[in-house]
Design brief:
This protein is of the alpha/beta class and about 525 residues long. It is about 45% helix and about 15% strand. The radius of gyration is 29 Å and the shape is elongated. About 35% of the residues are buried.
Amino acid sequence: MSKSKKKAPVREFNITGKILSDRHYYVDLTPQLEKLTVLVEKGRYFVINRPRQFGKTTTLDFLAQLLLQSKFYLPVFISFEGFGSVVNEPLHKFYALFWDNVIAYLKLVKRTLKWKPNNNAAASDPTFGFKDNVGRFCKAAGRKKIVLLVDEADGIPETFIIEFLHALREMYLARDLQPTFHAVALAGVHDIKNLKMRVRDESKSVGSYSPFNIAIDYVIPAFTRENIRDYYAQHTAETGQVFDEKVITRVHELTSGHPWLVSALAKRLVEEIVPDRAITIETKHVDEAVQLLLKEHNTNFDSLIKHAHEPELQPIVLDLLQGKYYPFTPFDPVLNRLALYGVIRAGEGNGCTIGNPIYAQVLLASFHRVMAAQMINGDVKAGVIDADGRLDFRRVLDKFQAFMKTKGPEIVRSHEFKEATGQLLLLSYLDLLVNGKGWTFKDVQSGDGRIDVICCYKTQKEIVELKLWYGEQRYEQGLEQLLGYLESESLSQGYLVVFDRREAAKEYTFAEHEVNGKKILAWVV
C-alpha cells in the first residue's frame, strides 16, 4: 500500500515576529527586493525609516535570504534591539557585543570564516579595533562582499551612536584603501541620520554634518489594494474561504495600507469573526473586526499613543483630529517626527492627515478628555445642574451644539469623521460632567439593538441616539429606533443628535417630538 501524502498545514496571518514563508501568508516583496538588490550591487549605504511593525524586519530578512543564495555576497543580518544592556559600559563592550551577534548569525546560516575578532586591540583603542576587525573580517570573506543589515538600528545606545556612525563613514570613504562592508542598511523608526532627536548629551559635538550623510533613504511602501487582494487570496487558495471584493477596498481605506493593521484585521476576520470557511467575508465583518481591534491593548497602538502625547507633538495632533489644515512638509522637524512615528501622513492636497482612519479612532479615544476640556470654558457643570441637583440634559446638549457650531464645522467635515467620532466627542463631554457621580456607556444592548450612549448621573438615566445626516428618511429612522429603546428601558424621554456633514444648506436645529406618549428632543449639529 502506497503511503498517502501528508497534507501541508494551512498557513496563517502573522502579526508577531518575523514572517516564515512556510507558516505565514505574506505580500510578494519581489519589486522591493529588486530595488534593494540594485542598491547592494552599487555598494550603497542606506537607511530605512518606517513606523513600528511596518515590515522593516521582514524586508531585511527576505533580502538576507536572497543574498545568501548569491555567489557574490555574504549578508550579515543583526539587530540592535538588545544592545541597551551595554548602555553603561565602555565603547569596546558595544563592539564586542556587535561581533558576538555577527558570529551568532553566521553560525545560524551555516557560514564559516577563518576569522575572529581581536578583542585586545578593541579594548585599547575601540574605534581603531573596530575598523581593524571589519577589515580582517571582509578580507576573510574572500571574493564574497559583506553586506551589513542592521534591524532596530535606533536601539543603539545613545552613548555610542556618534562613534559607530563616524566609524562606518570613515571606512566607507577609505574603502578604496582597505576592505570594508560593501553595503550597509540601517533600519529603524527614527531617522538615524538626524542625530538631534537621539543625542541628548550636549557635551558630545555632532558637528555641522551628519556622521552618516553618506547614506541614502529607502522607503518601504504601504500595501496597495492589489497587495491586499493578493495577500488575502492566499488564504482563499488554501482554505476556500472567499473575501468579497468590497472587503479589499474597505480594508485599504481603513488602514491606508499599514502592513500590521492589514494583517491584524485579516487575522481577526478569519479566526474570530468568520471562522466558518464556507461563509464569505463581507464588509460588515470588517467593521466588526475593527471594533474588536479598537478594544484591545497592543504594542502598535501603545507606541502610537505614546508619541502622539509627546508635549511637542500633542498640539498638532489635537488640531488635526479637530479638522485643522496643516500643509505637509518633511522639512518641518515636528511634522517629520509625526510622520516617522506613523501618526500622520501626506493626504489629499498635500495636507497633513492622521495616518489612517483606525489610528484616528485610537487617537480620538486617547485624547477624549483633553478634547472635552477644550469644549468647556469655566465651570464644567455651570448651567446644566438644576435646583434639585439633577442634570438638565437639554441644557447639556444645547451646550454641545454650541460647541459644534464653533469648532464643529472643521471636525465634522473631516473625511475621518464617522458616527463613532461623534460618539467619542459626546462621551468626552459627558465624562467630565458626571465625573465621580455617575457613568457613561456606549453601545449598550437594549432589546434587538444597541443604544449609542447612556449617561447615568446619580439616580438619573438618559439615552442618546446618534446619526449622520443622510436625509429626512434617516432622521425618521433615528426617531423610530430611539422610540424602541425608550420602550425597552421604560423611559419617557430620549435624545437624538444628528451630525450634518454638508457644507451647504446646513442648519443647527432643535426640535421636539411626541410619539406614542414618549418625548424625543432632537438636535442637528
